[in-house]
Amino acid sequence: MFDPVPAARPAAGPALRLSRALLSPWSRFSLLVVVLLGAASTMLLFEPQRLLASGWPPQLTGGTAAMAFGLAYGALTVAFVPRPLLNIAAGALFGAQTGLAAALAGTVLGAGVSFMLGRVLGQDALRTLLRGRLLTAADGVLSRHGFRSVLALRLFPGVPFAAANYCAATSRMGAPPFLLATGLGSIPNTAAYVIAGSEAASPTSPVFLAAMGFIVLSALGGALVAWRRRHGLSRDTPDS
Fold first, then answer.
1. Contact 221, 160 (CB under 8 A)
2. Considering only CA atoms, which of 180, 213, 179, 208 is closest in space to residue 194?
3. In the chain, % of residues over pLDDT 90
4. Residue ranges of the alpha helices (H) in the chain?
5. Are residues 88 and 197 in contact, defined by beta-carbon separation less than 8 angstroms?
6. Residues 114-146: pLDDT tens digits?
């Protein structure tokens, strides 16, 4: 008998072609760029550094104020506001203990939002750009040893906070180990900046000087670790 003739597939309509174009990797990446540029522009107009000069709104007090600061902290880190400035503000506004809790909560929140934005909107497009030797090696390290690598990045500052978030998002690292490593690794340096902010009125006090000394030493250590890791990746990665 005659073999059945396969039915012809219907041609893709304009709506289907439009939806495919909107959901393509580069369209999502373009949306990510627009979102981040909009957030950064908003923060430049808002000038969050005024918080240090004018203080926290008097309508917010106690735990409510700390929770609101943590939420604002997370949003500001997504918009590329430097974390040291926010950590100092946390200490100046809430003291060492409450300020540290609010700053750490904001750190994890901001890292999580950035990670998910990068994973959903930018991963497919950005992975096609990872063609250089150092970028390919860094992607491999984060994919295989994500928790340990992110923990080291947070303990020894050197890589900008936002850059580390989006770099991890393009790797195969899962969100739970990324957030856990971020929370644990951010404690020492966050605490140092928060304590410095809480003692800013007494710049000659032993506590303030100890906090500043820790900040300087951690920065030097981060620079050394980054230098050694960069040269190690260069040696370990074969020439393309």
1. no
2. 208
3. 22
4. 14-22, 25-46, 50-54, 62-78, 83-94, 96-117, 123-127, 133-144, 146-155, 161-170, 175-185, 187-198, 206-236
5. yes
6. 898 888 776 665 666 555 555 566 666 677 777
